[in-house]
Amino acid sequence: MSLNSAEGTIVYETGMQTRLTYSHLKRSKLGQTSDQAHRPAMLRLSTLAALLAATFFFLPKSAHAQSSGSSSSCPCTLRGTVVDSVSSQPVNRALARLTAPASRATLTDSEGRFQFEGLPAGLVSLEADKPGFLTRDMIGARSSPAVSVRLAPDSPPAILKLTPESVMFGQISDERGEPLEGFTVTVLVRGPNDGQLYPYMPGRVLTDDEGKFRIAGLRPGSYYLVVRQPQGSAPGSRNNSPVPSGFSPVFYPGVNDVTSAAPLKLTPGKSVQANLSLKREPFVQISGTLSGYNPRDQVSVMLQDSSSTAENSEIVFDPATGSFHTKWIPPGSYIVTAQSMGAPSAEGSDTPSQRVAGLLAVRLRGASLHSFARLQVNAASSLSDLHLVLQPTADIPVVVRGLPTTESSDQRLRQIFLGLLSKDRNSSSASYFAAFDDSEDAASSGSMRMAFYGVIPGTYDLVLGPQPNAAYYVESATSGSVDLLNESLVLDSSGAVPPINVVLRDDPATLSGTVSTGDTPLPALVVLLSENRKKPVSVPAGPGGAFTISGLAPGTYRVFAVDASANIDFGDAAFQRKISSKIQEVTLAPKQSVSINLELATVEE
Amino acid sequence: MRRALFFIGLFLLALSVCEANASPSPATYRIAGVIVDSVTGQPLDGAEVTLAPVTSLEDVQTFVSASDGRFFFNGLAPGKYGLAASRRGYASQGFEQHERYWTGVVVGPGLDTGHLRFRLAASSVLTGVVTDEWGDPVRDGSVMLFQQSMFEGSRNLHNISETSTDDQGRYRFAHLLAGTYVVAVHATPWFAQSQMQTFVRSGSVDGMAESFTVDGVIDGGSSTQIPSPGANPLFDLVYPVTYFPNATRLADAARVFLTPGATQLADFRLRTVPSIHIRVRAPVEPASASVTQEDGGEGTSIQIDSSTSVDLALRVGDSTIDQLQPSRTEIAPGLFELSGIPPGEFNLTSSTFSGAADGSYVSRTQSLSLLGDTDVDLHPHGALATVSGVVLFNAPSSAALGLVSPARPQPEPADADETISNFTLTLRSLKSGDSYDAAISRNGEFSFAGSTLPPGLYEVEIGAQEGLRVGTVEATGAVVSGRTVEVPADRPVKLIVHTAQAKATLSGFALKNGKPVSGAMVLLVPQDPGRGTSLYHRDQSDSDGSFTMAPLFPGRYTLLAIENGWDLEWSDPAVLFRYLPGGTPVEIPADGSVTCNAKVQ
């Protein structure tokens, strides 16, 4: 199943797919503020939550279309052409691959043509590959072009369109025009959830001896670019000057401040040049004191640059005196964070184990963040008198109602997933999974108690849903008067927030169907809009166009299907008006299963 | 001084501090000089000169040379400093650098460090484009650069650098010193690659959502569910390792001469050849093999799980490519078919894991020259030898008491896998060159049971971390000579292997007529060198003539210092022999420091 469909396009590290694993979830220290070193883990966590938010209820069943069986006058020959989607020119020496009903492959000829002989009538699936063209989506799953054709003796040739990749290249120099070698050039993308810039991992390269860099394999889209002095080349004294100097990071189109950074827009097959110049300047040092911790507490102090795109660096901290200081760093805007895990093994051995819903057993309460401090500073020159005070974090209780009382707590845990997804645009923000609170046994009552431990102040979205294939949907989720299905949870520095109440119901509806254009079924993104939920929900249909969405709340939905690669705000009213003829309204009664056929809505750029 | 360029960060030097006897002095000193082109002697402006005390290499100071090439560092405490320079169009070099060695600059009373002449060599660029036979760029090709140069006492081709091609098939090696080079490309045709190595499977995050796609690489397991690459000739193609200009044998490779400051082009056009298939029959213990047959929707898949595995590493010049990733099928227990293999020279390793919790295994490595499809039978012919034993790691304290303990040296590796990879006992056949490995267990025991070790003459080696080697060997049931064992066929052999650790330090001054010599090659020659040059040690004398070598294995050595000795092929005994009579005999103890001056020849 393709995943590029959640609330806009998920564009993070392409290596992500291998990392979204159980063990990484464990390692990401759930429920804690992500410190500097854990930043990639946190990114994964928030990504995961975003994915879950979008796909939770709506996991389509395996959508392999069955062949229709009308095999009267075959074996047949499938002919086709691979073309460049931008130039419409044939692509020679492309790999054309048949994936169903059999696995075969061949290279196209100089006219981009290929053929497979001796195939039965019915649905066949095809894909194509060639270096220089995009064949995998951002998280490594095959994306375009996977085409399904209903093969008959008179079938027209299949057309497989390959989208050419985009390239970014340029030259990095200093203020005298001398090339800067070994500097890190990083492509950044804006996260769909929080608007932050995240490193796009395949797009991190070093400049060569001429200061040049080149990043290929990029998908169309908007990218930011930042150039940094290589880590490890710590600035030292230069020409016997007492103050070290170095190069501040520069964002395209040549600014030090991330808020002034402009995106480079890449269209398919386009090569974009970005030359940047960096200027040597004196570096600064930030120092100060920290209070609000006990001598035995495990305290760490971190420095993040305000763009949140650099790797965080540790601050030298002396717990005995409370003083801290940074290394020599470029002048600029920074966030100093401090966090305490409390004293080691304070209650660890006594606390009953806290289980994250259905995921893993960890001593979350013992392992959660005890206190936290954050200070934003503008260090145009060295700063020496900062003072930070650690403040306690909050524990937010959660009560889940509607689960059957007959199940054990373990079984019940598997029915629900709860997360707090930070909406704050700074890198000290974190996301949390709710842990099961079995400190008091509430299994006999109709509710289940959980909690988010060690939450730092901030704005959060509640991410929740039953586990896949579970016979539940979320009827309501509130904190006091806040409707968490549609609004964010705000935790201020007082740490006071009403408990979260979640109500589940066990009579969800199911929507299934097929997406097609004319007579041809095809993979697409199925989008559901509900009057009760502000956010649209999107689910990919399979290669045969089939989809099944279970776990839906009863109610009325507006449903449509768009091309899976579309990058559209589905909630946009103007967009909805444009495709209004393709939108179907469906009303689902409790426990009802409804089947519909959707005509693909074409999106004009 | 051994190389410890700051930007490379070799921290070995922290071990070789030699100014311990420098008395505290309030005075500060100065290092100054001029950067010049090594050929023309012209002063070079804009060169970045970096300086760091050898005791704290991270404390780097920089000076950008002025228009007259001059640089200076003031206010220096007495001590030894590393000096390096880099400039656009020049290779980054340490002061008076030779191979991995260079001259440290010592400042202090009575030492003139204000008039250094730092000769920087102009560098060259080697670049080119790699295309396939249809002119399409070859991406992600691995490009290897070999330099014909003096290295470890012999003038040979050495793999000095590696890079990969970009989306346009382009590669680039910059900052190369003038000299003679060979360049080679190893790549896999993209269409064959995509078929053989990548598949997509659905992974589920335990009980959460099945929606994550895991992109994996066939890990050399024995799954037969992947369509056999042999089934479609399109996917059964490989690129041979190709040497500029499009030669497929090292002997036919062109020597590329780089002149200072030149940019040399070396383009490649790779041509596919049919993959070589080899069938390897390896002995399998019947008890440890299992065959599972699964009737799935797409036919029957057979899962074979024997504890034996076969690996191939391609040898190119003096380096091996272990990311060859041939397609591998275990047809029957112990019968492997490997494909996706270019013609060439290989190391074939077959390993058998016992399945025991301690991860013990035995393996055998042999060299293999492949020109076409080949059957390799690893089954033994004739009688086998039975060898087992124990490795005694001498703890320093117990060694002093004359005791040995079957314990590991410090620190204890935490990770079991690390233990396996770090500690193996190797028997290298002096006849065939094949090597037989056995894992050393946590309590020091090893056994070649299950191995196909034939009787013969073997050298005993330990594959462990650096600074640990076989000291002496005792045997019951076999004749031992030094580290060599004559293993018979008719009776079991028990070995006791005593290890030696490199812990000693040798320091002194290179002196000629009583005066210190800077930049001399100081060479420590073992009386019992064993295989290779691993027991030899070298240093380059620093500006005050001082040198330091560490860590050293105990034993008898001869200490040499040779002025302008950096072009000597000292690995040739005939060359070395001329200098040995003028050397100084040194006895290196198990531990501690030795001071000995070297007479410069």
Summarize the structure.
The complex is a heterodimer of chains A (605) and B (601). Chain A is mainly beta and 605 residues long. Chain A is 7% helix and 44% strand.
Polypeptide structure, described:
The complex is a heterodimer of chains A (605) and B (601). Helices cover 7% and strands 44% of the residues of chain A. The two termini of chain A are 25 Å apart. In chain A, strand 41 (509-517) and strand 42 (520-521) form a beta hairpin. In chain A, strands 27-26-34-35-31-40-37-38 form an 8-stranded mixed β-sheet. With 605 residues, chain A is mostly beta strands. The longest helix of chain A is centred in the N-terminal third of the chain and has 17 residues, at 39-55. Chain A contains 6 helices and 48 strands. Mean pLDDT of chain A is 74; it is low at 1-71 and 346-366. Chain B contains 4 helices and 49 strands. Mean pLDDT of chain B is 79; it is low at 3-22, 194-230, 295-302 and 395-421. Chain B is mainly beta and 601 residues long. Chain B has a 9-stranded antiparallel β-sheet. In chain B, strands 2, 3, 5, 6 and 7 form a 5-stranded antiparallel β-sheet that branches. In chain B, a hairpin with a 7-residue loop joins strand 2 (48-53) and strand 3. Classes of the chains: A mainly beta (605), B mainly beta (601). Chains A and B meet through helix 3, strand 3 and strand 12 of A and strand 3, strand 4, strand 12, helix 1 and strand 14 of B.
